[in-house]
Amino acid sequence: MTGSFRANVIIRIMLLSAASVATGVAIAGREPLHINITLATIIVIFAVNLFWYINKVNRKIAYFFDAVRNRDHSLTFPDHGGDKILARLGSNLDRINELIQEIHIENRRQEQYFGALIENVSTGILSFSNDGFVIHANSSLRKLLGLKQLTHIRQLERVDPSLAGSIAGIGQNDEKLVTFKGREGVITLLVKSGAFRSRGETLTLVSMQDIRRELDEKELDSWLKLIRVLTHEIMNSIAPVTSLSENLCNSYIREGKAISASDVNDKLVDITIRGLTVIREQGQGLTRFVDSYRKLTRLPKPERSDVPVKDLFEKTALLCAPYTEGGGINISYRLEDPDIKANLDENQISQVLVNLLKNAAEALEKSSKAGGSITMECKRNNTGQVEISVIDDGPGIPPENIEDIFVPFFTTRENGSGIGLSVSRQMMRLHNGSLRVVSFPGRETRFTMTFGG
Fold first, then answer.
1. What is the residue range of 258's domain?
2. 105 inside domain
3. Helix 266-297 and helix 212-251: axis angle, to 10°?
4. Helix, strand or coil, per DSSP, at residue 81
5. Are 207 and 124 in contact (CB under 8 A)?
6. One domain, residues 166 and 193
7. Are residues 169 and 233 in the same domain?
8. 166-211: per-residue pLDDT in tens?
9. Is the pLDDT of residue 432 over 60?
10. What burial letters (b/e) apply to 437-452, b meaning 16+ CB within 10 Å?
11. Of 77, 274, 320, 364, which has the fewest beta carbons less than 10 angstroms from its beta carbon?
12. How far apart are CA 195 and CA 129, in angstroms?
């Protein structure tokens, strides 16, 4: 036969047709049976040969896909001489094979690049399947956890059972703080999670970052701020006492000796009484200051229950009416769900709300515009947690003070104790929640309480 695929197909079809015609003539001419059988056999042979030859293309394509599936990129298709169709097919398959090889090489290069990148970042990276088998755990993670190898998240139980439980139960796009006792002491991790699909399987990607240093710096900064405030308050109380006591003492001593009773006159008695009165007032102020500090450090554990937020808002608005009635300030509330409930200690959170509303009312009274509004708002955030906000349209908080307003005893008011917001934030921490503030001077200030589980 020829080297052309098309010519070979035509020849085989012609031979098959000729054999069919001959068989028909033999049957019509009543030829002997063995001749008819022979011709029928020839027809079958030609038909099988034609099918086999045409299927040659399908076999080549099948071989190609088998090679791709088995990642065998060494397969090549030889030139078929003058057969343009098969030559073009072979050329195209070779080109596709080359492209697949290039993509495979590029993927490997990217895998090596990202693998080296992940290995060299300081953040611990962990990915695992739904059944807990670890796909990848970089060196930073193993070093952080003190493990030489990590193949299943159950191995985290060797480090700390609570850590293993937190990682095993982490949700998609979740974020949490996990504290456990490691070889270097107590370690606090900021754990974030995400999910992605690979080869039809959903995998979990977790990052773990040791934030001990950041927490230590924050704690040190908070202590320094507290010490500065304590020093300021104590010195303000002690300095007048020291000065007055020294002056009073000098009034009763002359030439190093105490004066006699005859030298005590009404003027000296009056000076002494006024001086002792000031000393007493300073002492009482210092006592109140110490009591405020004790109040800050001895908050009771909250007794939580499911409280209708609407009732809480109505009671709070009623309690705060005396602070707002005179200044024409309007208090309102809005609820995402009228029947929403929050798991909280009603007495403590009511105290927090009253403090926030009182602060907002005082800020509005100091503003240049008449009246103003305060809004209590309740809704659920993206993670399903209940959030309660107190919003006012007052003058706002200056940027230089926004970081200090939660520091104990920091205050910008003449008669303020400086512990209201500190106590409020502490109460929210006891609720496994948080108290945050966002302020846009001249437009809006928003305090937001987020309640944890």
1. 227-297
2. no
3. 170
4. coil
5. yes
6. yes
7. no
8. 888 887 778 888 877 766 666 778 888 888 777 778 888 888 888 7
9. yes
10. bebeeeeebebbbbbe
11. 274
12. 10
Q: Does 310 lie in the same domain as 420? A: yes
Q: What whole-number percentage of the chain has pLDDT above 90?
A: 10
In this prediction, residue 453 has a pLDDT band, given cuts at 50, 70 and 90, of low
Does one domain contain both 287 and 326? no
pLDDT, tens only, 316-352: 888 887 777 767 788 899 999 999 999 999 988 988 8
pLDDT surpasses 70 at 378: yes
Helices (H), 70-123: 84-120
- Is the pLDDT reported for residue 387 higher than 90? yes
- 150 vs 139: CA distance, rounded Å: 10
pLDDT at 424: 85
The residue with tokens 């209590």 is 376
Q: Please give the tally of structural domains in the chain.
A: 4
Q: What angle do CA 248, 252, 257 make, to 5 degrees?
A: 135
Indicate if 309 and 446 belong to the same structural domain.
yes
In the chain, the amino acid numbered 43 is I
202 class by beta-carbon count within 10 Å (0-12 exposed, 13-18 middle, 19+ buried): exposed
Task: Check whether 363 has a pLDDT greater than 90.
Answer: no
* Residue 286 dihedral angles phi and psi, to the nearest 5°: -65, -35
User: Looking at the whole model, is its pTM more than 0.70?
Assistant: no
| Mean pLDDT (whole number) for 291-307 | 76
| Residues whose CB falls within 8 Å of the CB of residue 392, separated by 6 or more in sequence, listed in order | 360, 363, 364, 372, 373, 374, 375, 444, 445
Evaluate if residue 309 carries a pLDDT over 90: yes
What would the two tokens of residue 43 be? 């027809």
Clarify whether residues 195 and 82 are in a common domain. Answer: no
Please report the pLDDT score of residue 441 as a whole number. 85
398 located within any domain: yes
Do 141 and 65 share a structural domain?
no
Domain end point (choices 274, 297, 320): 297
384 — alpha (psi -120 to 50), left (phi > 0) or beta? Answer: left
CB 127, CB 136: distance < 8 Å: yes
- Looking only at the bridges linking them, the beta strands covering 329-335 and 175-182 are unpaired
Residue 112 inside a domain? The answer is no
The type of residue at 128 is F
Residues 39 and 170 in one domain: no
